[in-house]
Amino acid sequence: MAASGKYSELLLLEINTHPREVEELSTRLYIVQMIAYSIQVWLADALLIYRLWVVWLRSLTVIIIPSVLYLGMIGVTCIALYHGSADTHPVVNLGVSFHSCSVVLNVLVTILITGKLLYHRRLVHGLLGEDHCKTYMSLVAVFAESGALYSIIGIVYIPLYATGSNMFIAFVPFLEAASVGI
Length: 182
Hints:
Elements: H1 2-14, H2 19-55, H3 64-83, H4 88-128, H5 134-163, H6 168-180
C-alpha cells in the first residue's frame, strides 16, 4: 500500500514539477505496486474459494468456475508483469481482464456462499426454530458485506481504469483496502 500511495502522489501531484524523475520512479513503483496488489488479490481470492469449498461441504464441482477465473487472473497477471512497462496498452487491457475476473469471482462466490448459508438457515429454522438461526444470519451479513464492498469499488474502478481516466488513481487505495477485507 505504501508503493501505491507514493505512486498516486507522484502521478497526481509531482508529475508537473519533475516529469523525467517522476516517470522513472513511477515506473518502478508501478511494477512494485502491481506485484504486491496482485499477490494480495490472489491470496484473498484463494481464501474465498477455500471458504466456498468448506461451506459447500468440500464439493469440487462448485469451485470449478471460480477456480477457472482464479487461474485466469494469475495468468493475466503473469503476462502483464512480463510485458511490464514496455507497452501500456496491452497492460491496461490485461489489468481490465484481471480486475474483471476478480470482481466476477467475488460476486459469484459471495452469492454461492450466501445462498448456501440461507438454505441452511431455512432448514435449521424449520427443525429447531428461530433462536438457532441467528448464527446463519450473522455469517450471511459478513460474507455479503465483505464481497459487496470490493465488488462495488471494483465496478466503479474498472471503467475508469479501462478508459485511462486519472480518476482511477484515486480508487486504487480503496480497492486495495477492500481486497484485504474479503
